[in-house]
Each structure stands twice: as structure tokens, then as C-alpha cells.
Design goal:
It is a single chain. The protein has 449 residues and is of the alpha+beta class. Helix content is 49%, strand content 20%. The strands form two sheets. Strands 1, 2, 4, 5, 6, 7, 8, 9, 10, 11, 12, 13, 15 and 16 form a 14-stranded mixed beta sheet that branches. α9 packs antiparallel against α10. Belongs to the ABC-4 integral membrane protein family.
Length: 449
């Protein structure tokens, strides 16, 4: 019996018991849809977490936080290390920064601001992707570069009152500086303690450039970049490395010496994402403390793989429950078609052919159910992503994070669902199909089965 004829025979027999077959397909569809929707939550949250991690920093960035030495403990990264990093294959740039070890206090007119203040190699920064929105790279000791949002951190001096900020947490327009700081002269005030008393010294600095606006609206860049020459002037005034403040209650306390060529923040930038892991592995073998997006994603992927496998397993249980209906349907089909089976055996039909007909019917039901379930799952996923944020906002008064994906269905998930449904339906039809091959011809023709 040809496969084409087997399909025709299966369809004709399915039409004879439409209601029962429909309910069986519906059960299979519900099981398949449940599997896909449940697992899609794991895929959706995984996608959201990965997106958050990759948007938070540059994916080709590798942070180096020091080196472990078995004899002397942990060491800061020095120029010798930086030179070594620059020679590593597929490293595009290496940036190195020194942080001012006290709050950078800046004044302009009647406004003041505090900001992180750093020294960096601007040539390396530009190679790594540092861009300016206006102005130029600082060239003189008294020239600085401001982060794009630095001006937003200025507040009126000695402000009294409670209406400084608006509903969005920003300084109200009437209290802002109200002009570009490019080309303006700011005052950087540095502190130190002598005999328990605070002594200050102002440094006049000119804004040479302003950094490009961050790519994400929620990111704020208020960093101030100063020159190496200005940092040395600050160190001469404070008498401490990086302008570190001494303890006013213990002025004679020793300050741990830092190598002059050491850095507080060193980052490597790979030429592409594929090279990040190889570079990170090489540095870790040499006992450097390394962090990169790839390292974090590895842990996140492992965790979510376990979660998704668990959800798929739970969803498979629903498909197994639906298989009970398939088993019942196929058992009834064997009983109802006993005379047809007897006729086929009487004219010489091979038992394998009879068995394959019933397996074909059970798999037919499972595949149709999986197809319908997949379509329903996509509709549910769309409805969840669209409606759940609105429900959370209305019912709980909370706004979900922007871009959060509750449900995501990659192409692999329907494939997994189809495979599981197919295997389960084959197993469900195996026993009834085997029973069909054991039907006695004479008894079947006498309708005694």
C-alpha cells in the first residue's frame, strides 16, 4: 500500500469521527501551546537580561583590575603591563586612567558641582571610540574635557528651598546654568588637611571640549577629564598620590605608596566580540583580574539554560497529558475499524503496513495539534508582551523597565515542540497500532471484535 493511499485512508477514517478527533487535536494543541508559552518566558527574560548587560557597556570592552602575585600580593596595573596588553593579538586599544582621590569640586559663577575627575591618555581614548560633541581635545595643562551631562549637575550655591528639582528629578530650568560651558573657565578647588585643619587651593581650568552624548537616555556622563600636568600640581599641593586626603584626626598616619606609573582603571578594547574570550582567557592565565561582558554572559547563559530546560520539561508534562487522549482515540479507532483491518489482512496486507497506518494517524493528530498550538502560542506571546506591562502599571502602579521582554519565541522553540509532540504521539499510538496487527481476520469479518 503506497504512502499516498495510506494518507487517504487515514483522512477518510478521521472524518468519520470528527468530534473525537477534534477534541484530541485540541488537547494536543493546548499541550503544545502551554509548552511553548511557558518556555518563552525563560527565553524572553534571558533576552532582556542579555540586552541590559550588553547595553550597559561596550561588548568588546575588557576591564583589568590588577594582577595577583603569589609572593607580593595584588599589584596595580603599570605601564609595563599596558605595553604588554597593547601587543596582544586583536587588541584595538588600551585605555588607562588615574582617579583624583577626592571629590572634584567645580565652580562657575554662582553655581557649583561635584564630579568624578580623572586623568587619561586621550590618544588611546580616541582610538577606543571616545568622541566629542563639540570643542577639541585638551592640549594644555589647564584644559579639561567635560562629560556631556556635567552641566546638568550644577546647582546654585547655598540654595535654600525645596523646589530645586522637577518631577523627573532634573534641576528646574530657572536654576540651571543656562549656557554652554565650552570655552568657559571653571574653578577646581582641591582640599588637604594640615594640623587637623582644612586648607584649599583653587585651580583655574578651561573647558576645551565636551564629550558626545551617551547612546542611552538613562546614562549620565558627568566625568571631568584633566591633564597629567594638572594632576601633578594637585599632588604637589596635597603631598599625597592622586590628591588623596589624609585623616584629619591622625595626620601622622602613613599613606601607602603607589607606583607613579600605576593606574586605577585599565580597559582593553578587542577588535571584535569573537576576540574578547581569547583575550580574557590569556590575561586570566597570567593572573590578571579580568571582567568582560562575555564573562558575565557566560554565567547568565548557564543559569537561563537550566531555567529554560526546566520550563520545557514542565511543558512536556502537558503534552504527555494530551497523549492520554491520543491513546484513547487510537484505541477506539482500532475497535471501530476492526472489519477494515480484517479485510486488509484477508487480501494480504502486511502487518507492518497496518501498523504504519495507525502510527501515521496518531502522528497526524499530534503534528496538526502542534501546528495549531504554535500559532496560538505566538498570539499569546504577543498579547503578553503588549498587555502585561499595562496590567502591571494599572494594577500595581509600577512601570516595568523599558524594553523588558516577557515572552520571546525563537525558531528553535517551535521545533522542539514539534519534535516532542511527534515523539509523544508516536509512543501513544504504538500500543493501539500493535493491537491492530493482532486482530483476528475471521473474528473481524464477523464483527465480533
Amino acid at each position: 500500500m503506497k504512502l499516498k493511499d495510506q494518507f487517504r485512508f487515514v483522512r477518510q477514517n478521521m472524518k468519520k469521527s470528527k468530534t473525537r478527533v477534534f477534541m484530541t487535536i485540541l488537547a494536543a494543541a493546548m499541550g503544545s501551546a502551554f509548552l511553548i508559552v511557558l518556555a518563552s518566558v525563560g527565553f524572553g527574560l534571558h533576552k532582556s537580561v542579555v540586552k541590559e548587560i550588553t547595553e550597559r557597556q561596550i561588548v568588546t570592552e575588557i576591564q583589568v583590575h590588577g594582577k595577583s602575585e603569589s609572593e607580593d600580593g595584588n599589584h596595580h596595573i603599570t605601564d609595563a603591563d599596558v605595553s604588554k596588553f597593547e601587543k596582544i593579538e586583536n587588541v584595538k586599544a588600551v585605555t588607562k586612567r588615574k582617579n583624583l582621590q577626592q571629590d572634584g569640586y567645580f565652580e562657575y559663577g554662582n553655581h557649583e558641582a561635584h564630579a568624578q575627575t580623572v586623568v587619561t591618555d586621550m590618544r588611546a581614548e580616541l582610538k577606543a571610540g571616545f568622541e566629542l560633541s563639540e570643542g577639541k581635545v585638551a592640549e594644555k595643562d589647564n584644559e579639561i574635557i567635560l562629560g556631556y551631562n556635567f552641566v546638568d549637575g550644577f546647582v546654585p550655591k547655598n540654595f535654600e528651598g525645596g523646589d530645586l528639582y522637577d518631577n523627573q528629578g532634573k534641576i528646574k530650568k530657572k536654576y540651571q546654568v543656562g549656557e554652554s560651558l565650552l570655552g568657559k573657565t571653571l574653578t577646581l578647588t582641591v582640599r588637604k588637611f594640615e594640623d587637623g585643619k582644612e586648607v584649599t587651593k583653587p585651580f583655574e581650568v578651561k573647558v576645551a571640549g565636551i564629550r558626545k552624548e551617551p547612546s542611552k537616555q538613562w546614562m549620565f556622563d558627568r566625568t571631568v577629564f584633566i591633564s597629567e600636568g594638572l594632576m601633578k600640581q594637585i599632588e604637589e599641593f596635597t603631598g599625597t598620590p592622586r590628591g588623596m586626603l589624609t585623616d584629619p584626626n591622625n595626620p601622622n598616619a602613613e599613606i601607602e605608596p603607589w607606583p607613579e606609573d600605576s593606574y586605577d582603571e585599565v580597559k582593553l578594547y578587542a577588535k571584535n566580540l569573537e576576540a574578547v574570550k581569547a583575550i580574557s582567557d590569556k590575561l586570566e592565565k597570567e593572573n590578571y583580574f579580568v571582567y568582560s561582558v562575555v564573562s558575565e554572559l557566560k554565567n547568565v547563559n548557564t543559569m537561563f539554560t537550566i531555567v529554560k530546560a526546566g520550563l520545557i520539561f514542565i511543558g512536556t508534562i502537558a503534552v504527555l497529558i494530551a497523549s492520554i487522549g491520543i491513546y484513547n482515540t487510537m484505541t477506539m479507532a482500532v475497535t471501530e475499524r476492526s472489519q477494515d483491518i480484517g479485510i486488509m489482512k484477508a487480501i494480504g496486507a502486511n502487518p507492518k503496513t497496518i501498523k504504519s497506518i495507525f502510527l501515521l494517524e496518531s502522528s497526524y493528530i499530534g503534528i496538526i495539534g502542534a501546528a495549531i498550538g504554535t500559532a496560538v502560542a505566538y498570539l499569546i506571546s504577543f498579547a503578553v508582551n503588549f498587555g502585561l506591562p499595562l496590567i502591571i502599571k494599572q494594577a500595581f502602579g509600577e512601570t516595568p523597565p523599558e524594553g523588558l521582554t516577557f515572552s520571546s519565541i525563537p525558531w528553535s522553540l517551535p521545533v522542539i515542540s514539534f519534535v516532542i509532540c511527534y515523539v509523544v504521539t508516536i509512543l501513544s499510538g504504538m500500543r493501539p497500532a500493535k493491537r491492530a496487527t493482532q486482530v483476528d481476520v475471521l473474528s473481524a469479518l464477523r464483527r465480533e471484535v
